Amino acid sequence: MALVFQFEAAGEWQRCYLSGVINEDSEVTLGSLLSQLQPKVVFNFRRVDSINSCGVRAWITFIRQAATGREVAFEECTPEVVSQINMIPNFRANSRVLSVYASYTCGQCNHQRNELFQDGRNLPKSIGTQLEPVKCEKCGGVMEMDEIEDEFFAWVAA
Ligand SMILES: [Zn+2]
């Protein structure tokens, strides 16, 4: 699915829901998005399916311009977006990251789900912070993060 965006007013912030795939075809969409941004904008990544390497390049060009003279934040970053943020600091530019999803798997029944970490709630403030245990809603077992915790949250220290 091609990248699409949708705006929602959120107080003084403009919330922008991105959905679909960020790839080589997204440049035009991102260009038109850029022209509609307000001074304070939150990008919501929950419905972004995937990002390929051409998409990463298009996004970096976009966010550099978007973050110039604006306050920019990211929320509900998928595990894939978090890995981009960790690998490529330019992916977030100077955006604040408000919340991220980490993928968890149950050690007992293999049930998988995403856990949301929110700034000001359960998002660790530094690497090495002990995280709250995540319980499986299917069997009550202990769930483990699919990524190495310190690597997943490396961006917190950046
Ligand atoms: Zn389970």
What is the mean pLDDT? 95
The profile of the biggest β sheet is:
5 strands, mixed
Low-confidence runs (pLDDT<50, min 5 residues)? none
Number of helices: 4
At the first level of CATH, the class is Alpha Beta
Principal-axis shape? globular
Notes on the structure:
- The protein is an alpha/beta fold and 158 residues long.
- The chain has 4 helices and 9 strands.
- A 5-stranded mixed β-sheet has the order 1-2-3-4-5, covered by helices on one side.
- The chain is globular.
- Zinc ion binds next to loops.
- The site of zinc ion has 8 residues, from loops.
Keywords:
five-stranded mixed sheet, 158 residues, 36% strand, 23% helix, four-stranded antiparallel sheet, Transcription Regulator spoIIAA, alpha/beta, binds zinc ion, 4 helices
In short:
This protein is an alpha/beta fold and 158 residues long. It has helices at 26-34, 53-66, 79-87, 149-152, and strands at 4-10, 13-22, 40-51, 71-75, 96-97, 99-106, 112-118, 134-135, 142-145. The chain has one domain: Transcription Regulator spoIIAA.
Topology, element by element:
Blueprint: E1 4-10, E2 13-22, H1 26-34, E3 40-51, H2 53-66, E4 71-75, H3 79-87, E5 96-97, E6 99-106, E7 112-118, E8 134-135, E9 142-145, H4 149-152
Parallel strand pairs: 2-3, 3-4, 4-5
Antiparallel strand pairs: 1-2, 6-7, 6-9, 8-9
Helix pairs in contact: 1-2
The structure holds zinc ion.
